[in-house]
Amino acid sequence: MPLEDGDPVRQRGQRVNGEVSGTPRLGGTGDPPLRGTAAPDGSRMEAMAEGREPGPALGDRDVSPGGALQQAGQHEEALMTELSELVQKVVKSSSWWERHGVDISILACSFLLLPAGFLCLRSAQAIPFLAGVLTLGVVHHTLTVKGSHLASHNALTESKSWGKVWAIFFIELCSAFTAEQGTYNHVKIHHGYTNVIGLGDSSTWKLPFLNRYVYMFIAPLAVPIITPLVALDLLRNVEWKVALRTLCCMFLGLYCHYWLLLHVSGFQSPWSALLCMLLTRSLLAHPYIHVNIFQHIGLPMFAANRKPKRIHLMSLGVLNLPRNALLDWSFGHSLISCHVEHHLFPSLSDNMCLKIKPVVSQYLKQKKLPYNEDTYASRLRLFLQRYEELMVHAPPITELVGIQ
């Protein structure tokens, strides 16, 4: 969900897992591209969506004497190729059930739980009613977060045509957002330029005018309201046919939820039904916001013309959180405990990210590459303590000396 960009750079030093190390700033990179505009180079952006290293358009040039940087880049490309071959062996030896079936079953189970959730809300007793709220809240986030995320990466099916259908269903109908702009901002920008200042640096998750407690604990409650409003604003950048389709899907999804609360759950007034919609749709909004900032912000950031190659970019700028039964089910492994694996191989499903995790972690550690891991509680303390530095000021740029 696009929010606001951060302020200009005011601080020096870079935090990695809570530790600060002074690093000289290398200079800015200009204004970022407008969110939701057409990709400047379709072929290049498609390559990044598949996890391949983009070409030299952003300035991966030889900047060191004697071509040392070029040699280092070739070495890193060889490392990424070697890791890809290891992962490909695991993928080829996996069944369809492992590649897609497990995650499709989780989404199907969530759909089957919908009737029980709406019927529980008919009860006048507290425990069944709260069970209904919990059920609908978990189902909503499973469909809108896990489903939308997998669909945006076409990880639910081998077919691109069906992948587009699922993207429209999960992103527009279930999540009340726009599929084209959501996919472009996430897959093409965030994944293509992870932790690159002005592009994929997660600055869209910042609201620097809010204090730390409001942002971390109160603002997430507004996610169900802000999401469709942001989507409506982004529709200005798409063709009218796409905008019309998105509006119809968004309206249908929201109205179906409202209608079921009135006619199945038995709510007596429109306001009580709308309040219940807000409650269920914001049930896991706090961890949703937290996860999106914990796993990138506070880690090394790079200038577009001074970024490392892909394997270093992802190993330095991405962090894994521990496994959590509720979040693993609702958000998926690729957003929680396998986020490093997901950024290295974004087209794999949640279950496959979990399966390749031992291979990736062992390889990165064997090659002395970073493999960032931290606990949810530790990251929460870090962001509360260093909120001004991490969330108000623009992130500093990491010097590449010692990285390549």
TrEMBL record:
Biased composition (Basic and acidic residues): 43-63
Gene Ontology terms for molecular function: oxidoreductase activity, acting on paired donors, with oxidation of a pair of donors resulting in the reduction of molecular oxygen to two molecules of water
Classification via Pfam families: FA_desaturase
Entry annotated with the keyword 4Fe-4S: no
GO cellular component: membrane
Region feature (Disordered): 1-75
GO process terms (BP): fatty acid biosynthetic process
InterPro entries (UniProt xref): FA_desaturase_dom, Fatty_acid_desaturase
S-adenosyl-L-methionine in keyword set: no
Residue span, Fatty acid desaturase domain: 129-373
Keyword annotations: Fatty acid biosynthesis, Fatty acid metabolism, Lipid biosynthesis, Lipid metabolism, Membrane, Transmembrane, Transmembrane helix
Membrane-crossing residue ranges in chain numbering: 213-235, 242-264
PANTHER family, per the entry: FATTY ACID DESATURASE 2, FATTY ACID DESATURASE 6
Identification of the protein by name: FADS6 desaturase
Organism: Circaetus pectoralis
Organismal lineage: Eukaryota, Metazoa, Chordata, Craniata, Vertebrata
